[in-house]
What does this fold into?
Amino acid sequence: MNRRALLAALAALPVTLALPASAQSVDATAINAYLTGLKVATGRFTQRNPNGSTQTGTFHLAKPGRIRFDYDKPAGSKVIADGTWVGVWDPKSNRNPTRYPLSKTPLSLLLRSNLSLREPGLVKGATRDERGVHITMVDPKAPAEGRMVMTFSENPISLRRWALTTKTGQTTQVALSDVRTGGPVNRSLFTIYGR
It folds into this structure.
């Protein structure tokens, strides 16, 4: 069987992510449906930074492409993705946001409107432990930009945390709590300029 035929045959199989022999396989169909249905969410977060420090705050998510993190301390610290750019406000070092293209960050994976675990090259692995199911993903169009590991509870399925590792190897972990999904969205929350 040539490579193209093999890939076509694999694509036709049900979405099941293989785990190490000691673990059970993960049926990703329900996780995929959850990610597709996740359009709006708000809640609290705890962030562990690459230097070991921890920060807390509130978040607002509105797919596609929008998320906002308001940090409890220091006052005025925030990160906003507006669908194209990520703006970072650090009151200790800048008055205006430092901007990065959203497409150059692993966060863009979470914010896709139609994220599908079936996309070739997206899922790099999956594991299960007492904290849940961990799915490692990279952007197939920019795999060198970093990776994201999303952790889901299984019963019910819910996004519990993620870890973003940049292309330089820096990892930031975010744990979610008090998450509410659905509801109206104030689009002005995701404006980088004028804030």
